[in-house]
Amino acid sequence: MTALTRHRLFWPAAVLVVLLVSNVFFAPRFFSITVHDGHLYGSLIDVLRSSTPLVLVALGMTVVIATGGIDLSVGSVMAIAGAVACLMIGDLPNQDSVGGVLLAVAAAIGLAVVLGLWNGVLVSVIGIQPIIATLILMVAGRGIAQLLTSGQIINVSSPPFRVIGAGYFLALPVSVLIVAAVVAIAVVLTRRSALGVLVEAVGASPTASRLAGIRARGLTIMAYVFAAVCAAVAGLIFSSNVASADSNAAGNLIELDAILAVVIGGTALTGGRFSLAGSVLGAVLISALDITTYTIGIPAETTLLFKAVVVVVLCLSQSAAFRAVVLRRRRTAGAPA
Amino acid sequence: MTERTVLEMTGIRKTFPGVVALDGVDFRLFPGEVHALMGENGAGKSTLIKVLTGVYGIDGGDIRLAGEPVHFAGPLQAQQAGVSTVYQEVNLCTNLSVAENIFIGREPRRLGRIRWGEMRRRASALLAGLDLDLDVAAPLSSYSLAIQQMVAIARAVDISAKVLILDEPTSSLDASEVERLFEVMRRLKRDGVAILFVSHFLDQVYEIADRMTVLRNGRLIGEYRTEELPQMQLVTKMIGKELTVLDRLDDEARTTAAPGEPVIAAHGLGRTGAVQPFDLTIRSGQIVGLAGLLGSGRTEVARLLYGADRADSGHVEIGGEQVTLRAPRTAMRHGIAFSSENRRTEGVIGDLTVRENIVLALQAARGWSRPIPRRRQDELVAKYVKALDIRPADPEIPVRNLSGGNQQKVLLARWLITEPKLLIVDEPTRGIDVGAKAEIQKLLVELAGGGMAVLFVSAELEEVLRLSHTIEVLRDRRLVEEIENTGGVDADRIMQTIASGATA
Hints:
Chain A is mostly helical. Chain A contains 15 helices and 6 strands. In chain A, strands 1-2 form a two-stranded antiparallel sheet. Chain A has a two-stranded antiparallel ribbon with strand order 3-6. Chain A has a two-stranded antiparallel ribbon with strand order 4-5. Chain B is globular.
């Protein structure tokens, strides 16, 4: 029992379960999953589906934070990816063309690689502090996205593109499958190769890593490129789901939710040890929180307040010092007078 | 009893998950004495100090200060009760000024405003009492580690200490600075302060301590008056067996003196502001020692040869081929390994496990895409954990939890698995106990015997003399003399060179 409660991810997992269960009191069929036309439907599936962009962004953010950095530009990269894809698809003579859509997707991801390189080079070659370096693209990137779309919302009606965010495969939403694949690739890449431990070494102690012969520069650039690619895929899912490119709404403030997800998942903002599973859990938790506010009928104007309260409770529950204080108080209160 | 203890700890027990760090330890301290706490690394000295200062809670036993039972919730409370500590590695903020460091947390104020003028005046007066003339408004980082240490002590002294704990205060000081520190300690002693002193330098302990308490493996071995316990007996009590390794070393080191081919040759290598251009050749199977005072350029020479800093003049030949050492990676590729003197900040990575730390350099050399198979890692790590006797022998715990000596061994293991041709070790024995020290010295001799070239940097002349075939003497950032370490060379001979410059 204590081994279980001591686990790093026990508290966020517990809060997630409590959140999900609390929905049942307001929506009795919350946990039921039905099959329609060979597709799975249900609130749990919705939670997963709506969490996909955030899970992706949090995944990239985790690796960047592990190097001791931070990436504020992920939201803008999402917007740019959506804009580029929708522009290219909109220009297709036939929007049903699978080849054309794949080309658009590849172009969006290719551009994300360039944007990630830009961030990585600013941080590791030129030596700008990560928060400032990525702030540049955070501000400029949304401008670029608006420039691409001429400040308009670009609508597309391309069935192949819709598949990414709204399609189903093997009874499951395609977006969830894409995210599962990216998570699996990320876990294999970091834990089966030596990437994970080298990144952790660089994040925990840059000086010691340099003397141990680790090429921090390449690793740091890779981390930012990975974060940008994750953000681009998230942007594609978001834009495919709404069948349009909205440069203002896409990924707006998602960087903050992603950082929160990483922290909930137990990765310290100071760099070093990181947990991809923790970040995924954190991201799903934040999405579940959003959905819960709707199901239990929290008025729109107090949604943010409700979120804030849950986050505060969650963060406090993860603090060993806080738990010690609460437990001690209870023990003295319970002692016979 | 006529004497009254200022501090009495009885039956102290402290456990960490899986380890009993202290078990039934008693410790007492009288006013106006210097009491040395002795023991090997991992014997529980640091734990006892942390228990005393409230960093850790205790699982059993009690602590009395001036007869009153106390329970400190943290170092601040301990400090307020009159127990101040200066830790092994300087715990000050190097980006703040000297005066700010001395008064941090208790700045002289008026109506909530800090009175900077008075703070600086009081800091100057305090330092003057220790014969230190510093610019108290300058950032602490502009002073050497030795001076920083003295500032830390000044700070601790100023916080009206009844009990002053000095944990390895002398490990980064040179001889004259140690003498100055001892002056201060003697003065404090006369004022009735009880001083708990931890040091691995036995000579220093015998010079300054009145009594000593010996710990081994978390247990109390005994409390002795210094004059009643000869050095050899003390060492035997600390390690629990007769120490003959050191005696044998003296013969071993020099019998193997048949140096082979040059591994590395530096020609006019230098870096402005760090060390003046020097020539140096290290051959396989040879131990070259760097001797000199603190700040004489020892570390700088080592760092240049590893490419940790870039040379701005001269060049290096490795195995006859001219090489530009652009970065540590270049040096590593040519078979050079470097263990830094700052093992916590530039050596081991505290968050990573023992296993991860040991394979780190080899993995870095292979690149991220070619991971060392887990089974191979386990084999390598098990081999070196055993060979170097790293304790605890659990490769999956974070290195942070190991004692200083064991961290140093992990660092050495990291480099040994890369099978270097030249091993550069900067202060590998600083702040670690006699047992581990002898083991590391023995290891270096064996490695050289096996054909490895070793560049050995140490502040301890005796150590350099004992191990080195050739001694390079540095003075004021210049390599002034190369001495073949044959029978007639002793510490005085080297001290002369250091004091007067080149004799030739």
